[in-house]
Design a protein that fits this description.
The complex is a heterodimer of chains A (about 400) and B (about 140). Chain A has helices at about 1-15, 25-30, 55-65, 75-80, 125-135, 140-150, 155-165, 170-185, 195-205, 205-210, 215-225, 260-270, 290-295, 330-335, 360-370, and strands spanning about 245, 250-255, 255-260, 305. With about 400 residues, chain A is mainly α. Chain A has a domain at about 55-185: Orthogonal Bundle (Cytochrome Bc1 Complex, Chain D, domain 2). In chain A, the strands form two sheets. Chain A has a two-stranded antiparallel sheet with strand order 1-4. In chain A, strands 2-3 form a two-stranded antiparallel sheet. In chain A, a hairpin with a 2-residue loop joins strand 2 (about 250-255) and strand 3. In chain A, helix 5 (about 125-135) crosses helix 8 and helix 14 packs across helix 15 (about 360-370). By secondary structure, chain B is mainly beta. Chain B has a five-stranded antiparallel sheet with strand order 1-2-3-7-6. Chain B has a four-stranded antiparallel sheet with strand order 5-4-8-9, with no helix packed on it. The N and C termini of chain B lie far apart (about 50 Å). The chains are: A mainly alpha (about 400), B mainly beta (about 140). The interface of A and B includes residues 233, 242 and 347 of A.
């Protein structure tokens, strides 16, 4: 009798109902951890323009201005294209020359602790300086950026509004330009999605709300939080734990050349004079630099790359650090047919080949697609009129 | 000595001294671990710990015998099954009186983590561990 009751209980808890997939308590807990959305956020203490209307408006103008590049033809928005998920749909980015890595979207970037595929920056503003002055990307220099800004009366005025003064020092001025760019990018938050509506309906026990979420997406979600182990790294409201992982994607650039990923990223950020421990940070509390102060480089970081957030993922392909996977289905196949020999794990493997059926693969893609809003996020137009 | 008397003596030796218990009680609502010569209590900030977010520990280390002196405390955490630790090396600040502040910890994935406390004294190092299931 006892086993009959247990069997019945198990059926009630886990079996699909007439309405389809019903999640058990453990699955529910895992799903609820992916919200609510938008997630809470505090302005970046290392950037005094962060979260200010003046900083965001000024940064928006700079983001779309090609005069920031040496050629006068390349704006930040040339690679972070709003209509393309604020990325570029290229396998690897193309600045003045083709680059080594895929261009990451800047959507939801305000939630990231480390910037860049290798996390070589610990703030959005210090990261924004890099493409501006990298010879292979926008190719400008600190002095050229400062000269451009000083020559434009409207931008000068907006700079003073955002930062209180126009610094005489060119390097400080360039850093503040990057801080304005960061303030704007922090405002790029993806809209709520079909997943968010389902997640919130689940939280309040709203059966009708839950029923509106497509069954294939529910089946894919079950794989995501269950046997797929995806949520181990793609955790929380952004679907990323903000750290780095080796998922068996080759990191060879060319014969004899490798992309060391996080291993090199740690070395870079630790010696970066623009990191949060340096003199360019506006933060006064040492707690603001807790991540960089305690960062440690180990051999296992070799070939690790940042775990990307998955919101708007259907618009931000190709995928992986070097754009090696063209579609979300390709990504799912990667995990389904994972080559464990490429992984560096010493102990129990978190990643194993999932051996998904064609239908299960499509279900996982169906779920991932519900993390995108029906329409892409377009920038708010700058306030009209000149600054005076 | 009878077997019962020996058992009673061993039990007494294993149980924490009342002074050590009173000592670790200074951290309210914390977790407690015992070893041969020490009892340790700790509490996380924030509580509960969130995956992918840094947290700190308040730790108190109490000697069972009055003559034992801690010379250093080291703190780490590992995922035993996966054989990896954290991506960060925690810093320990000695605040005196057996009280320590540990900063820079982060559990970057859910699963079974294990806190590792190394208490150093004139004898050597005593290791105290405790499992934590991170959700």
């Amino acid at each position: 009798m006892r086993s009959l009751v247990l069997a019945l209980l198990a059926w009630v808890v886990a079996a699909p109902s007439a309405a389809g997939v019903v999640f058990n308590a453990e699955e529910k807990r895992a799903i609820l951890a992916h919200g609510p959305w938008p997630a809470p956020w505090r302005p970046d203490a290392s950037n005094r323009a962060s979260g200010t209307a003046e900083g965001i408006d000024y940064g928006r103008r700079l983001f779309f201005d090609p005069r920031l590049s040496a050629s006068g033809k390349l704006a930040c928005a040339s690679c972070h294209v709003p209509a393309l998920g604020w990325s570029d749909r290229q396998r690897v980015g193309v600045g003045k020359v083709p680059l080594d890595r895929n261009t990451p979207s800047v959507l939801n970037v305000r939630h990231e602790r480390w910037l860049g595929r290798d996390g070589a920056s610990d703030s959005l503003w210090s990261h924004a300086l890099k493409p501006l002055t990298d010879e292979r990307e926008m190719g400008s220099s600190v002095d050229e950026l400062a000269a451009f800004l000083r020559s434009d009366a409207d931008l000068r005025c907006r700079h003073v509004r955002a930062f209180g003064a126009l610094p005489a020092d060119n390097l400080l001025l360039a850093v503040e330009i990057a801080k304005a760019l960061a303030a704007f990018q922090e405002s790029l938050i993806t809209p709520r999605t079909a997943f968010d509506r389902f997640r919130d309906a689940l939280a309040r026990g709203d059966g009708a709300g839950m029923a509106r979420y497509p069954e294939p997406a529910k089946r894919g979600l079950r794989i995501f939080v269950g046997r797929g182990n995806c949520a181990v790294c793609h955790f929380g409201p952004t679907f990323s734990n903000g750290e780095f992982a080796d998922i068996g994607v080759p990191f060879f650039l060319a014969p004899g050349q490798v992309d060391s990923g996080r291993h090199g990223g740690i070395a870079s950020v630790q010696k970066d004079r623009f990191n949060r421990m340096g003199p360019f940070s506006d933060a006064r509390d040492p707690a603001d630099a807790v991540a960089i102060r305690h960062l440690v480089q180990e051999h296992r970081h070799w070939g690790e790359f940042k775990v990307p957030g998955l919101r708007e993922a259907s618009r931000t392909g190709p995928y992986m650090h070097a754009g090696s996977h063209a579609t979300l289905l390709d990504v799912v196949r990667h995990y389904s047919e994972l080559d464990v020999e490429r992984l560096h794990a010493d102990g129990e493997r978190i990643l194993r080949p999932l051996f998904l059926s064609p239908r299960a693969s499509l279900d996982l893609v169906a779920f991932l697609e519900t993390l995108s809003a029906p329409q892409p996020l377009h920038p708010v137009k700058p306030r009209p009129g000149a600054c005076s | 000595m009878s077997r019962q008397a020996l058992s009673a003596l061993l039990l007494c030796a294993y149980l924490p001294a009342p002074a050590a218990l009173a000592c670790t009680a200074r951290i309210e609502g914390g977790q407690r671990i015992e070893s041969t010569h020490y009892e340790l209590a700790y509490r996380t900030h924030p509580a509960p710990v969130v995956v992918g977010q840094h947290f700190a520990l308040d730790v108190i280390v109490c000697a069972r015998a009055p003559h034992d002196r801690v010379t250093e405390l080291r703190v780490d955490a590992r995922m035993p099954e996966h054989r990896h630790g954290m991506n960060y090396r925690p810093s320990v600040t000695d605040r005196g009186g057996g009280v320590y502040r540990v900063e820079g910890l982060m559990f970057h994935m859910p699963g079974r983590w294990q806190y590792v406390f190394e208490v150093r004294d004139a004898r050597g190092t005593e290791r105290l561990t405790q499992d934590h299931w991170q959700r």
